[in-house]
Design a protein that fits this description.
By secondary structure, this protein is of the alpha+beta class. Helix content is 16%, strand content 32%. The chain contains nine helices and 41 strands. It is globular. The chain binds alpha-D-galactopyranose. Residues 278, 313-314, 371-373, 400, 439, 463 line the site of alpha-D-galactopyranose.
Length: 653
């Protein structure tokens, strides 16, 4: 009896000492939160005003923004409770988000897509005997504009130790790419398309000690190769596929490469590679700046790996009605010809300069009255503008929808195609080749008709966006390309946006990427598997050794530039572990084992799952090293947010 009383007393004591207490979510360390815009707010929405969801005010909670990820150690927490929704402050733009709660890597709550004006949803998640919690807000696949996300009245119940924020592990940069040797090696695309009679601009990309002597066998009439620079130029009148053998010779040896010049109607037979002003400078661009980046594309050696376009994005011409001394003034001359702004005093001189470097140059405009940043657009001047671009010497046009939305009266597919078809016709009337980049964020499933308007590549989504957390948007957009593979082929590419690594502009400052090294390996590997254009977004004059090693790995680039032009596909996904494959020429296959989870993971894929019968040689693409031979399966330990990127070659004995 006494014994029982003692037990009951003890139990009572334990119950009082471990009584559930509550801890507001906002009492945790908020500094570790990564989100796509602004910083997390306490008891206010993301713009610093009182929180309200569908008219209902909430006095306390966390005001956040999409692409948000937050890891929390559960410790003694037993339960998490909150009301979630899009804050009413987003009503001008309509935000759409998904709130997710993951417990020990498994989905414990998913709000589904929630839009502005939708009443708050209640989240109640048991954390009993669990370790890790992740709170997430995704952009619901449509870009993160106006995605003001409230975790209202968010609170833990805990006993004993409090839940605490987890600081993600810090990873030091690790270089996998071997340095190119002194002997010559020809890299980059193995095929190049040009229209009959139009100027050919192609530089044979080659690493190795200079001087290198370039030679070509099988050049068609009209084409010529400069032996000291490797610049292929001239023009070919006759349509046809011309097989050329390039050689590059230096004091250390000789390299050969078979190449095809396709004189026909389709350009960009492999995904375009280059650089763009957007993301590192936005509209703060000048002629001098562009020339300096072109210089850097050569001096860093990027040109030797196949990078060839220097693309000017928004901000090079006049803002109608602006008083800005540099950007205001007349947008067109008396004949209606498009003018550049004062920061670009010599468009032709700048284009010529870029060409003398063996590079090509791109320009940007919108089919509407103005561009996204408010600069003069091409509406009703399409032919005149295309002519002007050709006269200046451009080789590439990014045509960005933006204000054209105001011209759309109905909602028919034809209306969406119209401006792109108009500009295609205008470009085709010029005497230059323009790689044609459709930018309209995937409207009306552009991947299904981009080819019809002769687009060479088209953005499939909203902007990837530089922020203090673009792992979420990069991975959501990159892995979200699954399914578009049937629309890609030589000359027609899906575009998940630029490569934001190195130094990019975040919050008005040029800062090193916030992506971890493993995340950056994932970025490049995924873009290679996806056959996506490789358009760098970082400051080329400030590339550190690690970043340079990431973007110049010739075997990674070779996957991206593979001549079959088959975009890779997702073979399998479960619990944030994804297996992707891409068929390559000569029956080879690239395999990406991607770990999107928060912890390192062991990943396995069997040859039967890959549809391979027999034995393969496995090669580590990043390390450029052969590894095992197997007829069964391949197993790799993959870092958090990282990748094992492999090439499989069938062994025939
Ligand atoms: C849009 C495009 C971006 C960039 C900007 C320029 O947001 O999607 O890629 O061109 O406009 O203003």
């Amino acid at each position: 009896m006494e014994y029982r009383i003692a037990i009951a007393l003890l139990a009572g004591l334990a119950a009082t000492s471990l009584r559930a207490e509550s801890l507001k979510l906002t009492e945790l360390d908020l500094s570790v939160i990564k989100q796509g815009y602004g910083r997390p707010m306490v008891n206010q929405n993301i713009i610093g005003k009182p929180m309200a969801i569908a008219g209902k005010p909430f006095a306390w909670g966390l005001g956040s923004h999409a692409q948000m990820t937050w890891r929390i150690a559960i410790n003694g927490a037993k339960k998490f409770h909150a009301f979630v929704g899009v804050d009413d402050s987003s009503k001008d733009g309509k935000g759409t988000v998904v709130f997710q709660v993951l417990v020990d890597g498994k989905a414990a709550y998913d709000s589904g897509i929630m839009a502005t004006g939708e009443p708050a949803k209640e989240v109640s998640v048991s954390l009993e005997k669990k370790k890790n919690l992740i709170l997430k807000v995704t952009a619901a696949g449509d870009g993160q504009g106006f995605d003001h996300a409230d975790w209202a009245e968010a609170v833990f119940e805990y006993e004993g130790s409090k839940p605490v924020s987890i600081v993600p592990p810090v990873e030091k940069p690790y270089i996998l790419t071997p340095k190119p040797g002194p002997q010559p090696k020809i890299n980059g695309p193995k095929v190049f398309g040009v229209r009959p009679g139009h100027p050919i601009l192609f530089t044979v990309p080659a690493t190795g000690d200079r001087p290198i002597k370039f030679e070509a066998q099988g050049l068609p009439a009209g084409a010529k190769l400069d032996p000291s620079t490797g610049f292929l130029s001239g023009s070919v009148a006759e349509k046809g596929e011309y097989k050329i053998e390039f050689t590059a010779t230096n004091s250390k040896g000789k390299a050969e490469r078979s190449f095809k010049l396709v004189v026909g109607d389709v350009l960009a037979l492999t995904p375009p590679m280059g650089w763009s002003t957007w993301y590192m400078a936005y509209t703060n661009i000048t002629d001098t700046f562009v020339r300096a980046q072109a210089d850097a594309m050569v001096s860093t050696g990027l040109i030797n790996h196949g990078y060839s376009y220097i693309n000017i994005d928004d901000g090079w011409n006049v803002i109608p009605g602006s008083n800005d001394p540099n950007r205001g003034g007349k947008a067109r001359d008396d004949q209606g010809n498009l003018l550049s702004n004062k920061l670009f005093p010599d468009m032709k001189g700048m284009c010529d300069y870029v060409h003398t470097k063996g590079l090509k140059i791109g320009i940007y405009i919108s089919p509407g009255k103005t561009t996204c940043a408010g600069y003069e657009g091409s509406l009703n001047h399409e032919e005149q503008d295309a002519k002007q671009f050709a006269k200046w010497g451009f080789d590439f046009l990014k045509y960005d929808w933006c204000s054209y939305q105001n011209e759309v009266k109905g909602d028919t597919l034809d209306e969406y195609k119209l401006p792109y078809a108009k500009m295609r016709d205008a470009l085709l009337k010029t005497d230059r080749d323009f790689v044609y980049n459709l930018c309209q964020y995937g409207l009306k499933e552009v991947w299904k008709w981009g080819e019809e308007v002769d687009g060479n590549f088209w953005r499939t989504t909203g902007d990837l966006g530089a922020s203090d957390s673009y792992w979420d948007s990069m991975s959501a957009i990159g892995f979200g390309q699954a399914g578009y593979e049937k629309y890609a082929k030589p000359g027609r590419w899906n575009d998940p946006d630029n490569i934001l690594i190195g130094k990019v502009m975040v919050g008005g400052q040029l800062l090193p990427t916030t992506l971890t090294p493993s995340e950056q390996y994932t970025y490049m590997s995924l873009w290679a598997i996806l056959a996506s254009p490789l358009v760098l977004a970082s400051d080329l004059t400030q590339l550190d050794e690690f970043t340079l090693s990431l973007v110049t790995n010739d075997e990674v680039i070779e996957v991206n530039q593979d001549v079959l032009g088959k975009q890779g596909r997702r073979l399998r996904v479960s619990d944030d572990l994804e297996v992707w494959v891409r068929d390559l020429e000569n029956g080879e296959m690239a395999v990406g084992l991607f770990n999107r989870s928060e912890d390192p993971a062991e990943m396995t894929v069997s040859l039967s799952e890959l549809g391979i019968d027999g034995t393969v040689q496995v090669r580590d693409i990043w390390r450029q090293k052969d590894q095992e031979r197997t007829s069964k399966s391949i197993k790799r330990k993959v870092p958090r947010h990282g990748v094992a990127f492999l090439k499989l070659t069938k062994v025939t004995k």
